[in-house]
Design goal:
single chain; alpha/beta; Rossmann fold; 2 domains; five-stranded antiparallel beta sheet; globular; disordered N terminus
């Protein structure tokens, strides 16, 4: 390869830093500090990322849910700590799947009198407060309408300017919805209907990916650990087919509710959030044999578990596991464009 090409145009170099996710590029600035997923590069492209993520928990409050709510709540500290470590600007709120009983939330966010319904990274004792809200009880309706509850909570009048849920959903935030249930959804409409609605209210990310993620913690197909006599006559609760379908639409996580290790499930959810938020779109299609990523000067392995992968449909790099850059890490992406002559 000619040295002239390297000097003037050819070698693609991107420098990133993980202090926050907002970045702008100024030509000629090669080592500026930006946020996780930001860029500074020779070609002068301007890219903006942000740290905003809005997390809505939709909890099944039918009978037999106490134990699952308790397990979820007991592991909330690890989930929140993981988000705080990456300096995400998050909103969190909790509602229930009860759209029918007189005491049902019907899409309203749960909050004790005198407390804020929308929790943020500045909320005092957020782990304690969030854990308490996730323990939403087991005296609610047996008709789980989680998808409907999600839509109602994020729509007018509740989400309107003067609504009870106003201010939760921000225009540029990644929306994350986490469903917890040991049954299938009984809302009217299909999972695809709700995916279409979410697409209409959340614009796509710069990578072209959906700007919403649905995660499901419930009964998955063939989950033998959910054989429990307290549930229906067959000894099973019901596979969450519609919840799973919505999660798969967005590439979200599907985790078994009867697995006692809710910490693992929540960490998987956190990992997927970070993968989406740190995905980096390249300017040029790379020659993959030359694509190299450095974090603090060290080469990051190409590894789908703990490293990076190239995602051809978006012409982007995705980070995974321990390969997700830490706060304030210096990151450099280098490659030769595909088709470049030697």
């Amino acid at each position: 390869m000619s040295s002239t090409f390297h000097k003037h145009l050819g070698l693609k170099i991107a420098s990133l830093a993980c202090a926050g996710l907002v970045a702008t590029f100024a030509a000629g600035c090669s080592e500026q500090k930006f946020g996780l997923g930001s860029e500074s590069q020779e070609f002068g492209q301007k890219v903006t990322y942000n740290t905003e993520v809005d997390v809505l928990w939709v909890i099944d409050t039918s009978s037999s849910m106490d134990q699952h709510q308790d397990l979820m709540a007991s592991q909330m500290g690890a989930f929140v700590s993981g988000l705080n470590e990456t300096r995400l600007d998050y909103h969190m709120a909790v509602t229930t799947m009860d759209m029918g009983s007189s005491a049902g939330a019907k899409g309203k966010f749960l909050a004790a009198p005198g407390t804020q319904a929308i929790l943020t990274n500045k909320t005092s004792n957020i782990v304690s407060v969030l854990s308490q809200r996730v323990r939403a009880g087991a005296a609610g309706s047996s008709v789980e309408r989680g998808l409907e509850a999600m839509k109602v909570s994020l729509s007018s009048p509740l989400a309107g300017v003067n609504g009870m849920n106003a201010g939760f959903l921000r225009p540029n935030a990644l929306l994350v919805v986490i469903f917890l249930s040991n049954e299938d959804d009984q809302s009217s409409g299909t999972a695809r209907d709700y995916a279409t609605w979410l697409d209409s209210v959340r614009p796509p990310l710069p990578t072209g990916e959906r700007s919403w993620l649905a995660h499901f913690m419930g009964v998955t197909s063939g989950d033998a650990s959910c054989k429990t006599s307290q549930w229906d006559q067959a000894g099973f609760s019901k596979v969450g087919t519609k919840f799973i379908a919505l999660a798969e639409e967005s590439g979200g996580s599907v985790e078994p509710i009867c697995d006692a290790d809710f910490r693992r499930a929540l960490l998987n959810v956190k990992a997927r959030i970070l993968e989406v938020m740190t995905e980096y779109k390249l300017d040029r299609v790379p020659n993959l044999t030359t694509l190299t990523i450095y974090v603090n000067g060290a080469v990051v392995p190409q590894n789908a578990d703990n490293g990076w992968t190239y995602y051809a449909p978006n012409n982007s790099v995705r980070f995974h596991g321990t390969g997700v850059p830490k706060p304030d890490a210096s990151i450099r992406i280098a490659y030769d464009p595909a088709g470049m002559k030697e």
